[in-house]
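Task: sequence design from structure.
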């Protein structure tokens, strides 16, 4: 992170945001970034990570990583993702967990700021394949607070695991709530 923990905390405070320290973050996990309805979510994610003293890595579409900003985004923890090679993304991210210590991989599960009928399921398969927990996070625009939930260990019951995630996100709304779709994977309908 380019700015200090103190700076991040104070920028959030000046903006009216508070850190919810109820659940301290864990390391070696897949971090859910939801709801994602605004470009401000990215900036707030970086500020909250800095305020909690976390070094995060995050997935972003490859067209964001063009010169001259690509290098800067990589320094900020960005991992360029070519979405046309979906199967390789999950495998590559699983591989990173075996190569790095204290790895926090932030995944934008909605895949877009616009309303989507389903979340992208890659976060779930990465966590399961890497045998790491899923750490839900929140930006509660209504109360201007952000923080973490309790880590969720994946089981062999996708519906049960997703229900825990749905329960966690039920009270939180994004900046533009009408852009949030349901907390659901397409695989749940199979």
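Answer:
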């Amino acid at each position: 992170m380019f700015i200090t923990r103190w700076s991040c905390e104070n920028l959030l405070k000046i903006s009216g945001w508070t850190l919810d320290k109820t659940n301290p973050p864990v390391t070696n996990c897949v971090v859910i970034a939801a709801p994602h309805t605004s470009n401000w979510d990215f900036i707030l994610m970086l500020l909250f990570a800095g305020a909690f003293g976390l070094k995060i890595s995050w997935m972003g579409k490859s067209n964001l990583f063009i010169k001259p900003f690509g290098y800067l985004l990589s320094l900020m923890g960005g991992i360029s993702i070519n979405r046309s090679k979906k199967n390789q993304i999950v495998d590559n991210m699983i591989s990173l967990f075996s190569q790095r210590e204290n790895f926090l991989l932030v995944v934008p599960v909605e895949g877009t700021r616009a309303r989507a009928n389903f979340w992208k399921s890659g976060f779930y398969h990465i966590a399961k394949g890497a045998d790491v927990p899923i750490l839900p996070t929140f930006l509660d625009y209504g109360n201007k607070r952000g923080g973490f939930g309790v880590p969720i260990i994946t089981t062999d019951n996708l519906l049960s695991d997703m229900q825990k995630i749905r329960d966690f996100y039920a009270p939180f709304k994004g900046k533009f709530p009408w852009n949030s779709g349901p907390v659901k994977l397409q695989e749940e309908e199979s």
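DSSP finds six helices and seven strands in the chain.
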